[in-house]
Specification:
Elements: E1 12-16, H1 20-31, E2 35-39, H2 45-53, E3 58-61, H3 67-76, E4 83-88, H4 93-104, E5 109-112, E6 125-129, E7 132-136, H5 143-156, H6 161-178, H7 182-192, H8 197-208
Parallel strand pairs: 1-2, 1-4, 2-3, 4-5
Antiparallel strand pairs: 6-7
Helix pairs in contact: 6-7
The structure holds ligand SHN and 1,4-dihydronicotinamide adenine dinucleotide.
Enzyme class: oxidoreductase
Catalytic activity: precorrin-2 + NAD(+) = sirohydrochlorin + NADH + 2 H(+)
GO molecular function, one term: precorrin-2 dehydrogenase activity
Length: 209
């Protein structure tokens, strides 16, 4: 599995199933500003609340998944080509496997909350501090361990880490734009990295005095 960052701007996630696990996946894709299409005959309470809160971002079809649904969507849904990926998130392993199988033909990336073998991607644990993203994965071996490690890392990276990154980034671009000598440029960028997060915080505190 190759860990990459996918541009999800103006893209749809198709989530089939609307239970507790689907809820977590929906929250995650909404967090990344995606739009969501949900297909499920019954919807858990937490998702019902999301439907109210994010009425512009979520579209729901109250029905069972069937292959005919893809054909119907392809014909009727003008944004079909904007679907980035599908997540089979029902509590029925056979249905989830069927979804993975069916969507492969449409060349849409497919994942499942129960199937591990044929899927194209898996979700990862994620720590975000502005533009800094740290991800954790056990390749499906132990999601509970992913959660534990994610929490441990979170304490090492305070929220202000995003400001530290912004500061370093600005300084880095100054060096890149002003320095023509490649060796000096490289050296100055290395020196910039010697400013630790702790040192940056001290400097900003002194600056505010
Ligand atoms: C393969 C994968 C597919 C996918 O969903 O993409 C998958 C599969 C399964 N998860 C299961 C269980 C749990 N999953 C979590 C939590 C998370 N699961 C997530 C991702 C993934 N889960 C993918 C690979 C992740 C990796 O590589 O490690 C995270 C990272 C992302 C997210 O969902 O947002 C999020 C952590 C978020 C965080 O806190 O950082 C917890 C903890 C909790 O809920 O508190 C439990 C209960 C404890 C336990 O069992 O470990 C089960 C067993 C179901 C059963 O018992 O039958 C399966 C199915 C199976 O294993 O077959
Ligand atoms: N990947 C993960 O992170 C995790 C996966 N799991 C697995 O997920 C499954 C349970 O998921 P929950 O969300 O708790 O289940 P749930 O029972 O809360 O929800 C199931 C949802 O699937 C829908 N559904 C059922 N058949 C359908 C069909 N044919 N078409 C469309 N929708 C259909 C139901 O209407 C309901 O909305 C379990 O099998 C468990 O092994 C459990 C924990 C974490």
């Amino acid at each position: 599995m190759l860990p990459i960052m996918i541009n999800t701007k103006n893209k749809y996630a198709l989530i089939i199933g609307a239970g507790n696990v689907a809820y977590r996946k929906i929250c995650k894709v909404l967090d990344h500003n995606m739009k969501v299409i949900v297909i499920a005959p019954s919807v858990c309470k937490k998702i019902e609340e999301l439907l109210v809160k994010y009425s512009d971002a979520i579209k729901i079809y109250h029905e069972n998944y069937t292959k005919d649904f893809i054909v119907k969507m392809e014909k009727e849904f003008e944004f079909f080509n904007d679907i980035s990926f599908v997540i089979a998130a029902t509590n029925n392993e056979c249905v989830n496997s069927k979804i993975v199988y069916d969507f492969k033909k449409y060349k849409i990336l497919t994942s499942s909350i129960t199937e591990a073998k044929e899927i194209d991607f898996k979700f990862v644990g994620e720590i975000s501090r502005g533009d800094l993203t740290i991800t954790v994965s056990t390749n499906g071996k132990f999601p509970g361990l992913t959660k534990k490690i994610r929490k441990e890392i979170e304490t090492d990276f305070p929220k202000e880490y995003s400001e530290y990154l912004n500061y370093l980034s600005k300084e880095r671009y100054k060096i890149i734009n002003r320095e023509n000598d490649e060796d000096i440029k490289k050296k100055r960028i290395e020196e910039l990295l010697k400013i630790s997060y702790e040192k940056y915080i001290l400097l900003t505190q002194e600056g505010n005095k």
